[in-house]
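Q: Could you fold this chain for me?
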Amino acid sequence: MLGLFDRRSGAGSRPRRRRAIAAILGALAVAGVAYGVTNWVVGLSGGSSGEGQSGSVSNISISAIASPAATNLLYPGGSGDVVVTISNPNSFPVTITAVNLPTNTTYATGYTTSALSTTQTGCLAATPSGVTWSFATGTSGSSHTLTTPLTIAASGQANNPLTVSLTSDASMSTTAPAACENTYFSMPALTGVSATGGAATATTSPATDSWTS
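A: Sure. Below is the predicted structure, expressed as structure tokens.
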């Protein structure tokens, strides 16, 4: 009886083994087909490309600002600070390396308050006030290099607008009228800047800078 039981057991296991082997062979066949597809090498047609677009360039703007207040104040024969904000409307940083000044006979207009809304009688550009940009020359558009380049961040980013105190970059002549005492000045418009756009680390606001010649 024991021998008969063994033969049946062996005979009964063979179909299971055959099914297991068939399953393994089927899996290998499927894997072989998948692997065969990855061996079909596909090349790239010449001239394949994508489309990009560069941004447009807009001018920056420089404006007077009351706060922070100038530290060095003007007096006849002396120089004082000028505080400005610089706004960059572009989608990329802009770095300024120099400014272009009007002539040394283009004078600032005096105002009664830091709001620069009411002019100071007797201290106008036409008086003249005697207040000009430091190191301006007799030629309009003279270029003056900043001690440190200023980088204004892209539009919508921190440090744009950038607040800058230009140290001792306003001058008052010895002939400035007495009416210009305790007066706020709107400096003459700059005639231009030397600036470039492109990747750069933004200057942190508020900043201090100047030109010295």
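A (continued): The beta strands are 61-64, 79-87, 94-101, 109-111, 131-133, 142-152, 162-172, 184-186, 192-197, 207-209.
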